[in-house]
Amino acid sequence: MTTPDQNPRSLAVTALMRIQKGAYSNLQLNQILDDAHLETCDANLLTNIVYGVIQHELTIDYQLKPFIKKPNKLQPWVKVLLETAIYQWQYLERVPKRAIFNETINIAKVRGHEGIRRFVTGVLHQMDRTGLPDPAEITDRTQRWSIQYSVPEWLITTLIDQRGAEKTEAILNVINQPANQSVRVNRTRLTVAEATAQLTADGYDVTPSAVSENGLVLHGKPANHSELFKRGDITIQDESAMLPAESMHVTANQEVLDACAAPGGKTVQLAENVDESAGGQVTALDIHQHKVRLITQNAKRMGLSDRVDALTLDARKVDDVFADGMFDQILVDAPCSGIGLVRRKPEIRYEKQLRDSEALAKIQLTILDAVANKVTINGIITYSTCTILNQENRDVVAAFLADHPGFISQRVQTANALKADRESDYLEIYPDDYGSDGFFISQFKRVR
């Protein structure tokens, strides 16, 4: 039997407890994996359990509830331990039930005392005898979908209202599936074909992205283990996140402002297209100094430092630093609720409320208002978010255009001509469309 600090199931309980207290799931997992030095199979099991319990939290708690008679007296870690057992039992087909139960009971014994071990043993055996409640039997559709897909009812209601029931169910059907591992090729270093060949030789299964022209989807070991990543020839980025910069079609001599830039993925993507000797430059802003350092580090790793000027500045205060009409293009990849990222950051769904989206819309409009005069006549402002809610997307676009008659909507064009038959100028990407993150992109051309 492995020691507690090497047991992936026990480490999963530790990670989930820390995440409940506010830690980010990805950062917490990375920290534990760095400290534990697990074998690959154990690291994969730990990661699977942590993300799986978060993704299916409402479902699992619904199934656990009948077996906990005094929830207020239950220690939080014991509840989490039982949640991990249910997740493994219901969702990991290759793991034998006997192994799950034995490991769970042993963790209860090691982490607690004999009374906790007996309690956990009793709950598991009762579950096994009676079976778990089936969410499909819930009659109310919104409540049923909330429990089945582990999504808060407010979000389901909002999506049905804005997208209809059929599209909402299609989105819900995919958000608990694993996110693709995608990378973007640094075209200043090598071509997509060259990157594909080298990654294949390095043992990866490589598929061209259907979303972005310079994107690749990798299967196998983590992308950051590759030599291409270590050299800055590729960077890890979701396929949808590649689209805002791609759709800007930046040319070598343009001066570009990335107004909300950290950690700099889109900044370096823009920088690949400019040429300092031709007058091209990317100015990248973030309100926090430590995040500006991330932008700088990203640009250095990708060999693009000479094309990027990173500054600590609130995008709402650009008037203090930049002259009107200074930039040919501006990207506002705005702070948002992140609802489009629920597959990659599953805890987001539980942390947000509709009022958060409405409050963020005001900030997004304030940023757009602030940068509007900084783009030159005939210049373009690109507005993007990683959410799928109208409050932060369509409604912000309508409000900006209503308040700024000197701008007109411009159709968003991507290299792969995504959704070419759509009626809107803006581009909406949903998690079920291409298996990528949910994203929204809109563009405004300044005409006077």
TrEMBL record:
Gene Ontology BP terms: regulation of DNA-templated transcription
The record's section on NCBIfam families has:
PRK14902.1 (NF011494), rsmB (TIGR00563)
Q: List the Gene3D superfamilies.
A: NusB-like, Sun protein, domain 3, Vaccinia Virus protein VP39
Where is this protein primarily located?
Answer: cytoplasm
- What is the name of the protein in this document? 16S rRNA (cytosine(967)-C(5))-methyltransferase
Give the signal sequence positions.
Answer: none
In this protein, the active site sits at 386
A Pfam cross-reference name: NusB
Q: Which PROSITE patterns match?
A: SAM_MT_RSMB_NOP (PS51686)
**Stored SUPFAM superfamilies:** NusB-like (SSF48013), S-adenosyl-L-methionine-dependent methyltransferases (SSF53335)
Q: Which residues form the SAM-dependent MTase RsmB/NOP-type domain?
A: 171-447
Name the enzyme group at the top EC level. Answer: transferase
Its cellular-component GO annotations read: cytoplasm
